[in-house]
# Entry
Amino acid sequence: MAEQEETFHTRIWDEIPEPDNPFAAASCYCHGYDVYGDLLGKASWVEYLYLLFYGERPSPQQAKLLEGLAIALANPGIREPSVHAAMSGGAGGSTNASCLMAALAVGAGQLGGAHEVYRAMEYWQQCRCNLDTWRELLLHPPQEERIDIWQPMEHPAGFDPHGASCPTPVRQTLNYLAEISPNEHLPWLQAQRDALEHTVDLPLAMSGVAAAAFKDLDLSPEQGEMLYLILRLPGAAVHALEQKKAKGRRFPFFTHAIHLANDPGPFTVKQTVERSTI
# Structure
């Protein structure tokens, strides 16, 4: 009896091996599309990203929406905790992978992080575009039956518990995405932002805008959580590299608050040689 050829099954990916090497792929198909023979050179990065996550090619409106969101999220800025974590890793000489893992770990949580986006998308699933339902949920958020990995939310998901007013970049992002969105959630959020902020006495955060955008892209909370982690990594990466090159000497925070009682000053080449011979 002839040996049966081993096959591997996944709904996302299919490979045809090279005739002379079963461990190397000759053709790779993502949801039926030939990646290197068809998509390469024809599809954009965000179109391919949407195909990977959703399983279907995005419409031009969906691709434009995802591209706009990706630009808005690509660099959360040096004040953002996940970027700050990557910068600290770079300043301390950590490996590049360690810096990105620090950004992922800090940016995964429920204070502006990816799991807050997950929670906010759950809000959308329950409330849709009904203002009264939103008000009831925000004032009386659902309570977890048991605590597993995540502690209960300490503020309404998608809002900034420390904010004074809605930041300009958040409003600019919401206005642009609502204008180009092919769905209803972003336009509704734009129209009802003041009412929602008044309900909780907190400003809308970028995580809330991202949750509405992912909902307009027909993604699940799990998919939105994953994409939010991925899309914010470029900023963490470049700031970590900058701090690694500067070796912490130009860290944008705390430099004016640190005073050494016996500062030896910067090393010179002569001092380095002298110390190495001691």
Q: What stands out?
A: Strands lie at 13-18, 21-30, 33-34. The mean pLDDT is 91. Residues 185-200 form the longest helix (16 residues).
